[in-house]
Structure formats: structure tokens, C-alpha cells
Write a structure and sequence with these properties.
264 residues, alpha/beta, Rossmann fold, six-stranded mixed beta sheet, four-stranded antiparallel beta sheet, 12 helices, 10 strands, 23% strand, globular, disordered C terminus, binds adenosine-5'-diphosphate, binds magnesium ion
Length: 264
């Protein structure tokens, strides 16, 4: 559904994304992961045209997005970022209803939607709808950020490290909720993280990036079982690889690595 065709991005003479080819399927939870500065956010922002590629083409459902109206495009792509971005002077209900209103959804319809979504993330509508963002905890605010991106029912949702600023317990709860929500809503979700545990937990497929390129793209299981090279193996971490393959805990680092990795 989202296809990158040889997409590149340079700023000045610095190459940030290098000839990226990707196919993100409809309804999958696709995780982009890699070290800081590898180009995850740039890749994501090219999907909603907050950043324009220097070369190549991105298609959504076969249509070149560079030909679309960027405002219209963004109304059909939910976007969740780490710094929440709820409007402080609007109630939770107003924040969530924002895009549905812009899209001219009828009042009765979006009111119902807002209640449904609040319920889905465990925020009792009667209690939370009329509160202001400052009256919610960080985890509660981020839940609102997530459902706000879903309120207008966009087929695609982009999430850029949405849970990174949360404490570990809230983070795990939100990961669980996202997996549960996704089972119901089945959106195409592109999720950026630098946390491999998070990626393994939530992803249908994981795309590991380094230096503006895709290093490996695979299901969590296959990544763990067959890391393509030393970079991926290091990034996943010997501990996780050992756990998956039930290799002996003793011995040298080399001896604990999977066969394909150690011979390549
Ligand atoms: N506006 C910009 N001007 C110059 N360099 C930039 C700009 N935006 C991002 N970069 C560089 O591009 C690279 C990729 O950035 P980014 O996509 O934000 O990485 P990530 O999200 O993986 O941490 C980084 O090296 C960053 O410094
Ligand atoms: Mg980033």
C-alpha cells in the first residue's frame, strides 16, 4: 500500500536517505528502527510530505503522493509524535474531535467516535472528555494523542517514537493497548522506535536502518533467528539472540551467535 521507489534525500551535499525501496502492506504494523540519526524520522516525514524526497517516488495505493494535495494527504494520515502536541486550551473531547470536524463529520457521529475511542484506551468518557490536557498524566495524554490520530479513521497512521518519553510501566501498557487496538482497527501503522524490545513486541515486520539505508526487513522472529549481518546482530543484542535460540549462556560472543551470522 505504501511503496518507496528508490527514494533518496539529501540536504546540501549530505546524503540522509540513500535509494530506499520499501513496500509497506495495508493493515500491517511496520516498525522502523535504527540508531539515532539513521534517518527514521526523515523516512516517516516523507510519507506525509512534511519532507520532500530529493529523488525517487512514494506511492500510496499506486498513486504518486507528490501529485496529491499535501493538506488533503495529511488529513488522511494520522500522526503521533513523542511531544504529544495536544492543544492545551482545548478539552480532551475537543482535541480528539479536531480532525473529524475538519473533515466535516457530523457532530453526532464524531461525538460517538470520541466516546468509543476514549473507552478503547480505558479513559472513561464521562470523566475525561471535559478535562484539559494538563489535568492528565503523561501516559493518559499520550493515549489521547494516539486516539486523536485515529479519530478521523485514516487508513494510515505514522507514529514517531510515541512512547519514548513515558515511564517504563506506562510505555508497556501503551504498547499492549496499541497491539490490542490494532487487532480491531487494522490500520497501516508505521511506527518509529529505537527500542528493540518495543519493536519485537508490537511489529508485524521490522525494518532495520543504518546510515540512511535499509539493512534488513523481516518479521521479528526471522530477524532474531537470522540477523543478516554483524550490525543487525549487534543491534538486536547477543542476549536476545541467545534467548531465542536457546544457545548456551557461556562461551565467547562468537560461539553464541547464530550460524548464518558467524559464517557470513
Ligand atoms: N534539516 C536538516 N538539516 C541537516 N541535517 C538534517 C536535517 N534533518 C535531519 N538531518 C540529519 O539527517 C540525519 C537523519 O535524521 P533523522 O531522520 O531525524 O534521524 P532519526 O529519526 O533516525 O534519529 C541525521 O544525521 C540528522 O542530523
Ligand atoms: Mg527521529
Amino acid at each position: 500500500m505504501i511503496a518507496f521507489h528508490n527514494v533518496a534525500k539529501s540536504i546540501g551535499d549530505v546524503s540522509i536517505i540513500k535509494g530506499m525501496d520499501l513496500q509497506i502492506e495495508a493493515g500491517e504494523l511496520f516498525v522502523l528502527i535504527g540508531p539515532s540519526g539513521c534517518g527514521k524520522t526523515t523516512t516517516m516525514k516523507m510519507i506525509n510530505r512534511l519532507i520532500e524526497p530529493s529523488a525517487g517516488r512514494i506511492d500510496i495505493n499506486g498513486a504518486d503522493i507528490s501529485k496529491a494535495d499535501p493538506v488533503e494527504l495529511r488529513r488522511n494520515i494520522g500522526y503521533v509524535i513523542q511531544q504529544i502536541g495536544l492543544f492545551p486550551h482545548m478539552t480532551i473531547g475537543q482535541n480528539v474531535a479536531l480532525v473529524p470536524k475538519l473533515k466535516k463529520m457530523e457532530k453526532a457521529q464524531y461525538e460517538k467516535k470520541v466516546d468509543e475511542l476514549l473507552d478503547m484506551v480505558g479513559l472513561e468518557p464521562k470523566v475525561f472528555k471535559d478535562r484539559y490536557p494538563a489535568e492528565l498524566s503523561g501516559g493518559q495524554q499520550q493515549r489521547v494523542g494516539v486516539i486523536r490520530a485515529m479519530a478521523a479513521d485514516p487508513p494510515i497512521i505514522l507514529m514517531d517514537e510515541p512512547f519514548s518519553a513515558l515511564d517504563p510501566i506506562s510505555r508497556e501498557q501503551l504498547q499492549d493497548e496499541l497491539v490490542r487496538l490494532q487487532r480491531t482497527i487494522k490500520k497501516t501503522i508505521v511506527f518509529v522506535t529505537h527500542d528493540m524490545d518495543e519493536a519485537i513486541k508490537i511489529a508485524d515486520r521490522i525494518c532495520i536502518m543504518n546510515n540512511g539505508s535499509v539493512v534488513q526487513l523481516d518479521t521479528p522472529n526471522r530477524l532474531l533467528q537470522r540477523p543478516a549481518n554483524e550490525f543487525v546482530a549487534d543491534f538486536i543484542g547477543v542476549k536476545r539472540l541467545r534467548k531465542v535460540q536457546e544457545l548456551p549462556a557461556q562461551g565467547s560472543k562468537k560461539a553464541t551467535l547464530p550460524p548464518r551470522w558467524s559464517i557470513s
